[in-house]
Amino acid sequence: MRVCNLASGSSGNCTYIESEKARVLVDVGKPLEYVLNALNELKIAPDSISAILITHEHTDHIKGVAKFARAFNIPIYAHSYISEILFNQLSSVRHLLNFFDADFDIADLHIQPFPVPHDSKYCVGYRVSEADAVVSIVTDIGNFTDTVYEAIKSSALVFLEANYDPEMLMSYPNYPPFLKKRINSDHGHLSNLSCAKAIEKLVHSGTRLVVLSHISEHSNTVNLAVNTIASYLESKNIIPNVNVRLDIAHHEHRGTIFRINPTNKN
Ligand SMILES: [Zn+2]
Ligand SMILES: [Zn+2]
Questions:
Q1: CB-CB contact of 144 with 198 (8 Å)
Q2: Ligand number nearest to the C-alpha of 188
């Protein structure tokens, strides 16, 4: 598999995953021009995308879906629990909407959606496999539950939310108290320390690559996220860049291109 985050954060999310026979985008929360430029950098023709997978109905995950899907006639997949909302919000591409309530395949990619605690109508993460090569995406998660851990454990690569630093969140003057409470709740977003504890578990399950994602523009910084997570992991004898590689998903440009190959293709 070839995998690359194209954008991550409250200003828009989009991740590209490619197998031998399929090319999918997880969420399209950026404008069409942005996504076309990012795909162009990867030398991917937009009309070669096999499907768009939606995690949940928040704007930063779907605001670019309709334009992209309509322009290139791309099928869209989302959980049946958000069908009504999407029929409404993506009404111009109703004919391209497909709803799942179980695992499914897109060519040689096996897609395993799983529920994630978040304050949307319904939110899923995805475990995506090409044979035994596994990549998981879990952002917009209030709480790293056992269900989430079981769903993504032993993935080679995980895009995992490191949304906020609690002190920065509480002292940020432009968020009203209800929003701070929402972000900080079990159905909001994941703090740096909660992310670190999740990484600790994932490393023990065999994960060796974590891309810190959905980093807040107001209540976090890349340095703070990396330093908090690295020092927690070191205190547990997990050495960053020895036992696990930490990478970053950015707000306004694509991240690293990773290759995760099935064992029979190495
Ligand atoms: Zn989001
Ligand atoms: Zn959200």
A1: yes
A2: 2
pLDDT class of 265 with cuts at 50, 70, 90: low
Q: Which protein residues have a CB closer than 5 Å to ligand 2 (ion)?
A: 58, 140
> Domain boundaries in the chain?
2-260
CA of 74 to the centre of ligand 1 (A): 22
Distance from Cα 58 to the centre of ligand 1, integer Å: 6
Tens digits of residue pLDDT in 123-176: 999 999 999 999 999 999 999 999 999 999 999 999 999 999 999 999 999 999
* 245 CA from centroid of ligand 2 (Å): 26
| Closest residue by Cα to residue 52 from 38, 73, 37, 83 | 73
Name the superfamily (CATH) of residues 2-260.
Answer: Ribonuclease Z/Hydroxyacylglutathione hydrolase-like (3.60.15.10)
